[in-house]
Design goal:
Chain lengths: ~500, ~60
């Protein structure tokens, strides 16, 4: 085997571009392993751990591109590096073909685009707060997609934003819709009457997709970042966004999505909702459900699916009650019973491998209520046979693309779980839309088949239960993605909540 | 002010993942992409200090 590498000085590439480059090179003849990354200290460590750190790579700085290839022969390694050169050149040519010199800073971009009103920032977390500060100083609203931003920076940025009457969405704001335009990871949904404020990207996506399935659309959807309603941040952007939705002519009903806030923030949010003069649905996962005290137009619900269903009913002026499954209940219970009957006596656990953080959290809550303790990175101090992992958490994404783009971490997770004789059900989410991988179900399907086969050879049936967060109009196509998962042996349910309940049922929960 | 953002046409400065700018362009949104690379020689602390200094000057 031959190892070869190249370092390109001052050739910064974003994480998605690096992933695309590595993917392409892996398909080059004779190539066994590829690393394509920037020469940051963290990436030096990664290369060292995987035994790929060459002397040349060690000299690379954070702005230098490093490519290392392991190949069958020297000629294959050389051919792969030549291919890398070709791809990087093609990218440069494409940029030059626009005939415009791209700005290198926020300030010069602002000069080149008069009337700019929004900065969409997705640089690595260590740099994100500084770029957001520059944007706010220029009077721009900000969508801060980047994660790994400290709470101290978040508080400071939101204080500046409020002082200037600006919206700062995020950090870790994956999804937003402004005036019908989808930003970040967003599904193709119609414009409509529902205004959303969400401390959760995938939670927002689930609600938007279920509204679309019910024939309703989004007026505005503001992502505020997962910590906005915490005591430290004080609900700054949630409260400002609610004020704006209150006066937005297109918004007839407001949905708030998040985790239970600090009590004093919850009171402020409720006061704000009462004063809106518009009906509201509140899904604070893990919080109370039912009518909010003294606010007949404010409905609290327990799940993301319930938020969409309650909103649809309110707009249609129909009464609504929560239901565990939207389809034929008897058929679903039969299928659960059949799946349960195929398990060995040792198979009792549900393992959830998630790309969406809020979807993982919602599944954890539902599994806990139906099966008992659930461990995982959302519940690191809990012991239990059931486990849910959020592969989009900061510890997995530092220096890597998000699992909605890069399936590698989840594929590894599926392979590891296949060998565990306690696992009855593998539970997963597939998230579609702009920004997500072009074929996420296709990326995971071979791993699902292989995992089921490993279990079969050991005399077990491994059940796969999934939900697909998407719409028929998404680039990946909802029906095609569902079909691929079903072809790989998965049971696909219409929502994350239903998938979690079905998984719990198979593992023995009394539904 | 936030209401203006809801009502007016979006004009976006994209700083980070280039794919987001490409998607917005396809949707007909006016967008300019920043050819960003880590400032201050790749030292985040130095970059944050520089930004804070600029903030004070502004």
């Amino acid at each position: 085997m031959t190892r070869a590498g190249l370092v390109r000085k001052s050739a910064y590439q974003d994480s998605v571009a690096l992933l695309a480059l590595a993917r392409d090179l892996r398909t080059t003849a004779g190539v066994r392993e590829v690393a394509a990354l920037m020469g940051t200290p963290a990436n030096h460590d990664l290369l060292r751990q995987s035994g790929l750190l060459t002397a040349e790579a060690e000299s690379a700085g954070p702005n230098d591109l490093v490519i290392v290839v392991d190949a069958d022969s020297e000629s294959h390694a050389r051919a792969a590096l030549a291919r890398a050169d070709e791809l990087l050149e093609a990218r440069q040519r494409q940029r030059r073909s626009t005939g415009r010199v791209l700005p290198r800073t926020m300030e010069s971009a602002f000069r080149q685009l008069p009337g700019a009103n929004l900065a969409l920032i997705s640089v690595p977390g260590a740099w994100a707060a500084a770029e957001a500060r520059k944007a706010l100083r220029l009077g721009l609203h900000v969508m801060l997609f980047s994660d790994n931003v400290s709470v101290e920076d978040e508080v400071a940025l939101k204080r500046v934003a409020r002082d200037r009457g600006l919206l700062l969405m995020g950090p870790d704001c994956g999804t937003a819709y402004l005036g019908g335009t989808p930003l970040g990871f967003a599904n193709v949904v119609p414009r409509g009457r529902v205004g959303l404020v969400a401390a959760s990207g995938t939670g927002l996506q689930q609600v938007a997709c279920l509204l679309a399935a019910g024939g309703e659309g989004i007026s505005q959807a503001v992502g505020v970042g997962g910590r906005d309603m915490s005591r430290a941040v004080g609900g700054a952007m949630t409260l400002d966004a609610l004020d704006a939705l209150g006066t937005d002519a297109a918004t007839e009903l407001v949905v708030v999505i998040g985790k239970p806030p600090a009590p004093e923030i919850e009171r402020q949010v409720e006061d704000k909702l009462r004063g809106l003069g518009k009906p509201a649905v509140v899904a604070l996962l893990g919080g109370k459900a039912g009518g909010a005290p003294g606010a007949s137009k404010v409905r609290r619900v327990a799940t993301l699916e319930d938020a969409a269903a309650a909103a649809l009913s309110a707009l249609r002026r129909e009464t609504w009650t929560a239901r565990p499954f939207s389809g034929d209940g008897a058929a679903i219970h039969r299928r659960i019973a059949e799946a349960r009957a195929a398990l060995t006596s040792g198979q009792r656990a549900v393992h959830g491998l998630y790309a969406g953080g809020t979807l993982a959290y919602e599944a954890t809550l539902l599994l806990e209520s139906l099966l008992g303790p659930v461990t995982g990175n959302l519940r690191p101090h809990v012991d239990g046979i059931h486990r849910v992992i959020d592969f989009g958490a900061d510890e997995f994404t530092l220096g890597h693309a998000h699992p909605m783009i890069d399936p590698a971490s989840r594929i590894e997770g599926v392979a590891a779980l296949a060998k565990d004789p306690r696992v009855a059900v593998l539970l997963l989410d597939i998230v579609l839309g702009h920004g997500a991988a072009p074929d996420p179900a296709g990326d995971l399907a071979p791993a699902l088949r292989a995992a089921r086969e490993v279990a079969r050879q050991e005399g077990r049936t491994l059940h796969v239960v999934a939900c697909v967060i998407g719409t028929a109009d998404d680039p990946q196509g909802l029906a095609a993605q569902v079909a691929q998962l079903e072809d790989a042996g998965a049971w696909v349910l219409p929502s994350n909540a239903q998938a979690a309940r079905a998984a719990a049922g198979i593992a023995g929960a009394n539904l | 002010m936030i209401g203006d953002l809801f009502a007016r046409e979006l004009r976006v400065i994209n700083c980070g993942l280039e794919g987001f700018a490409q998607k917005l362009t396809l949707l007909g949104v006016t967008v300019i992409h920043v050819e960003w690379s880590p400032p201050a020689g790749g030292d985040p602390r130095k970059a944050a200090l520089l930004a804070a200094l600029e903030d004070e000057e502004a």
